[in-house]
């Protein structure tokens, strides 16, 4: 079973609590699958490995309860998590490094956050960055949109303005990989 770090889940829980209060958080917990309710009740440690299915369940349930049910809220929560969970030390790297520098570092650190898949960033001649996500066990758009939200917020944190943040391909659509497109000025 694929796993991710607890921070990915706890940041979504914090987003819900900050934007919808304690009552909203309780509604979210109640909307989770029973096995995931039990995991959330145990208090998720940021550096612990948790099932990726829990991350997906939290995102999908939050989007269903507080979004439009189209998973767009996953992108919003991914962006919020990028800023809310970024240690102060790394903020300097964001300001000094280009977005491409950040994406290259993220690719090297992927396995510190997920035990499945890999991230492959590249930049085409027009300046568009392609973030390719390969080999994630049981891919889900909630994950891809969360990564897209994180990537777009990373561009903003570096001091640039996002001009493009979109999905090009997704394994859930039958593609061989998931591909996100990003550009900035």
CATH top level of the largest domain? Alpha Beta
CATH fold name of the largest domain: H-NOX domain
Q: What's the pLDDT, averaged over the residues?
A: 95
Shape: globular
Which sequence of strands runs across the widest sheet?
A: 3-4-6-5
Q: Using DSSP, what is the number of strands?
A: 6
Helix content: 55-70%
Keywords:
185 residues; alpha+beta; H-NOX domain; four-stranded antiparallel sheet; two-stranded antiparallel sheet; 7 helices; 56% helix
Summarize the structure.
The chain has 185 residues and is α+β, with helices and mostly antiparallel strands.
Q: Care to describe what's here?
A:
With 185 residues, this protein is an alpha+beta fold. The protein folds into two domains: 3-79; 88-184, H-NOX domain. The chain has seven helices and six strands; from the N terminus they run βααβααααββαββ. It has helices at residues 6-31, 34-41, 52-66, 72-84, 88-96, 99-113, 141-157; strands spanning 3-5, 49-51, 118-123, 129-134, 162-169, 178-184. The strands form two sheets. A four-stranded antiparallel beta sheet has the order 3-4-6-5. β3 and β4 (129-134) form a beta hairpin. α1 (6-31) crosses α3 (52-66) and α1 crosses α4. The model has no long low-confidence stretch (mean pLDDT 95).
């Amino acid at each position: 079973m694929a796993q991710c770090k607890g921070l990915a889940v706890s940041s979504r829980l914090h987003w819900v609590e900050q934007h919808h209060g304690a009552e909203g958080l309780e509604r979210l917990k109640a909307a989770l699958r029973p096995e995931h309710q039990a995991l959330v009740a145990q208090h998720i440690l940021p550096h612990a490995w948790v099932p990726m299915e829990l991350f997906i369940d939290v995102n999908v349930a939050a989007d269903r309860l507080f979004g439009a049910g189209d998973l767009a809220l996953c992108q919003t929560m991914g962006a919020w998590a990028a800023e809310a969970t970024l240690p102060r030390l790394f903020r300097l790297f964001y300001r000094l490094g280009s977005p491409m520098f950040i994406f290259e570092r993220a690719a090297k650190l992927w396995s510190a956050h997920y035990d499945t898949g890999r991230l492959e960033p590249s930049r085409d001649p027009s300046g568009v960055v392609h973030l390719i996500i390969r080999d994630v066990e049981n891919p889900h758009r909630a994950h891809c949109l969360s990564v897209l939200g994180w990537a777009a917020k990373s561009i903003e944190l570096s001091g640039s303005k996002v001009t493009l943040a979109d999905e090009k391909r997704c394994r859930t659509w039958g593609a061989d990989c998931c591909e996100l497109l990003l550009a900035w000025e």
